[in-house]
Design goal:
With 137 residues, this protein is α+β, with helices and mostly antiparallel strands. 31% of the residues lie in helices and 15% in strands. The protein has a single domain, classed as HIT family, subunit A (2-Layer Sandwich). It binds adenosine monophosphate.
Length: 137
């Protein structure tokens, strides 16, 4: 699929719009979801331009999932969560709203999560949660 380099996450990667970051290295970035489906909802993205999981080169997929695991561990430690939903939507037909591949880490139960990308969270609360996660990394 053709990559749209004007998508929101591409702009975050270029530093054109802000994000509440929790982790960054040469190949990945993790930041807080602004419309969280649960407290601590975090996104992990590879930096390589790829629209969906199906476009992601295998070595980037392999590397990114290690960072997903690392951030999940930090969320568990920081928020004392009992379970984390790992969600990945590939394609508009699946409900994907931002066309840069990303992994959702939602510290919740599949039965309790709030609606997807529906309501802005409280920025101060999100920042405080991000600080906790960063400290646990
Ligand atoms: P998806 O629908 O799987 O593509 O998920 C996109 C996610 O990005 C949603 O959960 C949105 O709440 C979230 N989101 C949209 N814009 C931003 C932004 N500027 N910063 C952080 N998260 C965002």
């Amino acid at each position: 699929m053709t990559y749209d380099n004007q998508n929101i996450f591409a702009k975050i990667l270029r530093g054109e719009i802000p994000a509440i970051k929790v982790y960054e290295d040469e190949r990945t970035l993790a930041f807080m979801d602004i419309m969280p489906q649960a407290d601590g909802h975090t996104l992990v993205i590879p930096k390589v331009p790829a629209t969906t999981l199906l476009d992601l080169p295998a070595d980037d997929a392999a590397y990114t999932i290690q960072i997903v695991q690392k951030v999940a561990r930090a969320i568990e430690k920081a928020l004392d969560t009992k379970g984390i939903v790992l969600m990945q939507l590939s394609g508009e037909a699946a409900g994907q709203t931002v066309p840069h591949v990303h992994f959702h880490l939602v510290p919740s139960s599949i039965h309790d999560m709030r609606q997807h990308a529906a309501q802005m969270g409280d920025q101060d609360k999100i920042k405080a949660l991000a600080e906790k996660i960063k400290q646990a990394l």
